[in-house]
């Protein structure tokens, strides 16, 4: 099912509009991640889709059907929350079967569906346990199975990985990806963690300042961000920025003249900053190197800005000659719009 938010306006109480003529489309059968900083309105969008909030203006369509005035029960949605929200006094089996019981499914049909779902979320051997006997990741799998019990047309996942430690988080990402592929249910995953989004989403929507900044694959957002907000949000370490007015001639010649003339900011991805193997007029002081397991982050100081590089091997040198890859450079105007991205050369 394709989901469309069309020109949605929503303001809480008498506050300025949080969403102002907001539009977006979730493609049929895809897993879309909604990514944005705290307070950007991610949960608000989720609640609008779930029918828990009504917009002041605009429409919500499930395929061709206008569901704007439908309440939650009329929308055929499955929801999963950060804190699992399982019934502690019910077994895993009865938790998963609960929505079916409420909908008066016969016992045999309920248990057959529970068996299918337990297989899908790999909990067949845990059905007789109570939630408190399971790990956080297992509890979240029960919550997902329960949300899928009635074959929802749309699955909404609200920060489902936030309560889990790193290992369980990695594991559940894979599980969510697998489940979504198996069921083909249109899914919206709300997260503030770009790793979640980059690893499992077909497409990522970046929300900031009440607006949809961009929607696209993780690679598209990284290589060709529409603006500075997206460029800064996607990619760790954060993109290096420097003022165009300070750039040395060697760097200028690397960049397209027409866009450079209109640009105020140059962005350089950390992997694009290398030590030159031949003499280079670009030099930098190497102020620190931080080893992060396999990776090394090198902190560089130059006359045109301070940078982080992830492409410099551990060294005892305190000054290094640099080369910068054109592919890792981006130019932005004073409003933050991206004028040119080296990633465009790769397209
Ligand atoms: N019921 C409400 N009444 C008034 N203001 C609200 C209400 N719910 C949310 N807000 C405000 O709307 C803004 C967006 O909130 P929302 O929860 O949608 O953001 P979010 O992106 O999900 O944030 P987080 O990542 O912190 O959960 C915030 O400033 C929040 O304080």
UniProtKB/TrEMBL annotation:
Pfam families: ABC_tran
Domain ABC transporter: 3-234
Gene3D superfamilies: 2.40.50.100, Nucleic acid-binding proteins, P-loop containing nucleotide triphosphate hydrolases
Keyword Membrane assigned: yes
GO molecular function term, any single one: ABC-type ferric iron transporter activity
GO CC annotation: ATP-binding cassette (ABC) transporter complex, substrate-binding subunit-containing
Record keywords, A-Z: ATP-binding, Cell membrane, Membrane, Nucleotide-binding, Transport
CDD domains: ABC_Carb_Solutes_like (cd03259)
InterPro entries: AAA+_ATPase, ABC_transporter-like_ATP-bd, ABC_transporter-like_CS, ABC_transpr_FbpC, ABC_transpr_MalK/UgpC-like, Mo/tungstate-bd_C_term_dom, NA-bd_OB-fold, P-loop_NTPase
Protein name in UniProt: ABC transporter ATP-binding protein
